Amino acid sequence: MEKRGSYSLLLVFCIYVLTAINAQQPDPRFLVLSIDCGAASPYNDSTLGIKWQTDKNYITTGTSVQMKEGTGLLKQLYSYRSFTSGRSKDCYTLKVNTDTTYLLRVRLFPGSGGSSSVALPVDFSVSVNSNHWFNYSAVTGKDSSEVLQESIFYSFQMEEVYLCLLKGERGAPFINSIELRILPKTSYVFSKSTLEPPKFLVLGDRLNMGAKSTDQPFRFPNDDFDRIWWPALPPKYPPYSRADGSSILSNLTFDNYDPDYPYDFTNENWPPTKTLIDAWVGSDLSFNITRERNDTNRIVGSFYFMEIRPNVNATELDSDNEVIYENIGGPDDYNSLPLFDRSEQSFDLLVPTIEENANGLINVNVSFYSGPFTKILLNGFEYYYVYEVNINATYSSDRDILESIKANFDLGDWKGDPCYPVAWDWVTCDSGSRIQTLNLTGMKLSGPIPENISSLPELTEIYLDNNNLSGIIPESLASLTKLTILALDNNQLTGDIPTQLLNMPGLKLTFSGNPGLTRGGTKVPASPAPSPAASSAPIRSSLKSDVALYRTMLLFLTIWVLVPFR
Ligand SMILES: *[C@@H]1O[C@H](CO)[C@@H](O)[C@H](O)[C@H]1NC(C)=O
Ligand SMILES: *[C@@H]1O[C@H](CO)[C@@H](O)[C@H](O)[C@H]1NC(C)=O
Ligand SMILES: *[C@@H]1O[C@H](CO)[C@@H](O)[C@H](O)[C@H]1NC(C)=O
Ligand SMILES: *[C@@H]1O[C@H](CO)[C@@H](O)[C@H](O)[C@H]1NC(C)=O
Ligand SMILES: *[C@@H]1O[C@H](CO)[C@@H](O)[C@H](O)[C@H]1NC(C)=O
Ligand SMILES: *[C@@H]1O[C@H](CO)[C@@H](O)[C@H](O)[C@H]1NC(C)=O
Ligand SMILES: *[C@@H]1O[C@H](CO)[C@@H](O)[C@H](O)[C@H]1NC(C)=O
Ligand SMILES: *[C@@H]1O[C@H](CO)[C@@H](O)[C@H](O)[C@H]1NC(C)=O
Ligand SMILES: *[C@@H]1O[C@H](CO)[C@@H](O)[C@H](O)[C@H]1NC(C)=O
Ligand SMILES: *[C@@H]1O[C@H](CO)[C@@H](O)[C@H](O)[C@H]1NC(C)=O
Ligand SMILES: *[C@@H]1O[C@H](CO)[C@@H](O)[C@H](O)[C@H]1NC(C)=O
User: Fold this and answer.
1) pLDDT by residue (tens digit) across 425-446?
2) Span of the secretion signal (predicted)?
3) Ranges assigned E (strand) in 369-477
């Protein structure tokens, strides 16, 4: 027999496959959350067995809009939540477990121009915690087809994930549905033994090779984890001959994931049976994919192979299968390779070559090295754009104080990180994730100025003007040594202005329009109030947190091989 990879893993998986046979009950435990944004009431999707909730427990901002239901589109697409307030960001809060791998899918559909459709043009971005995920833009009705985006992330050391819509140049951001699924912890890890550093993956495509021309995309309950598998069909993909093992294999399941089964190897993606039972057949399989994202140079892919044998044909598919798990590289092996150059890499059996041309067209080509094999069966292929998780977050004590200020003044529902990926409208942040300015001008604040604003040591500008603040001006504000602007005009502040503040070098302190305020025992001018120094001190734009560009273009490949067990 030919040399093959990892025998120990092979045996482990083989045993598993045998025990899993016939465990076919659809198991909704991985479908943690399915939200139909803007829907008026929850409902059950009887075809798929998915339970859809409304979004009211996950967000308080925005308004829900229902469109007239048409035919041919998912029910989730006929309602959406619209964010018209003009805030820098609006965030859904999703509860998650730490150290768990999740798939997150959203759909955006602005409607087809009816009265309750989204007003175009619109553009905005979507982020997950501090990670930019994707940009959305629709200018005319031509852009109004459904957009689906999927990401996979793991090892976020957080109990909440913020899915945020970040306002763009034009229009009101909107969203139609949010789906959160749990994946086995070690799936899509793409490195040999470790989940670190955490990754944020963005789906390129997930293909079912060998699908019939009449096949539709499939998902749960055919895929336990509700991944969607799209048929790889002409004209986008070549018309390769197909092998169809469904008559032999329909009662076998390779995929039903059993969390009680002890396994500890990485890169277990658990492809569904429905993907594995049909395949492209050829001696040299080649197809093109299009690069759709420029902001990372790292793409990972998983090939799913079954039955690599000489001269195999469809009727020769065997029910007695095993899996060869071959990890052909982790970051350690690949760091020094130039772009997509796979010439130094060896598979035991196959040569996948992946070449990108100047137009972002990526050619994927799988063929044999040599030897007795003449036919390959390629069952599936997935690829993802890879990002390091951006763990930047607002300095925690600053964040706590902002939370207190928010609660104290009843500022409403500001969710997500105060600074990342864009700051809340009423703060700006410095490059060290500290709060730099606080702009609460004209926010209808009443009550005293919170003492603990003075625990934001990096503050340079505070605008509290044009509110209804009462009480004294806290002396402790003088401890903010970097403060250059403190605007307190047009409030109901009382007492004497602390001399420490009046004597602070470099501080522009404005306080007119506070009838009860005195300076050295003398009343300060009541009105008309000069407007505070706002215009002279433009607030720095929010932090750039664009995902860093990766200089090294890397490709991590995982090969999954199902061969007959003899
Ligand atoms: C959905 O189905 C579950 C049972 O699986 C039931 O308890 C629930 O009431 C149903 N919800 C709706 C909105 O029909
Ligand atoms: C989104 O747009 C911004 C600016 O227009 C750009 O910097 C960023 O790379 C884009 N992100 C993606 C994922 O395309
Ligand atoms: C598959 O299962 C069905 C129902 O359990 C049974 O009727 C059929 O004979 C089985 N097919 C094969 C090929 O074993
Ligand atoms: C892939 O794209 C290249 C360049 O456009 C083209 O020559 C080749 O025929 C394409 N291959 C397939 C399988 O479509
Ligand atoms: C990728 O970059 C090229 C040139 O820099 C640009 O024309 C193209 O629009 C970019 N594509 C995406 C998806 O951002
Ligand atoms: C497929 O293989 C079987 C068994 O080797 C053989 O009898 C049959 O003729 C082959 N069919 C084709 C189309 O090659
Ligand atoms: C695929 O790669 C093999 C081996 O490098 C080569 O012989 C073959 O021509 C390639 N096929 C295509 C369609 O590019
Ligand atoms: C800030 O002060 C308020 C009341 O003075 C207090 O309730 C709150 O706990 C303080 N917040 C922090 C983070 O110390
Ligand atoms: C301003 O605050 C005082 C109490 O400090 C309250 O009586 C008054 O109604 C407030 N005015 C406005 C316009 O909110
Ligand atoms: C503070 O925010 C208000 C809007 O809420 C804006 O009009 C004003 O220009 C901002 N001030 C500064 C200094 O940016
Ligand atoms: C995180 O913040 C630092 C500055 O504090 C910045 O240099 C770095 O690029 C940021 N990381 C990401 C991924 O945005």
Assistant:
1) 999 999 999 999 999 999 999 9
2) 1-23
3) 376-388, 427-429, 435-439, 446-447, 461-463, 468-471
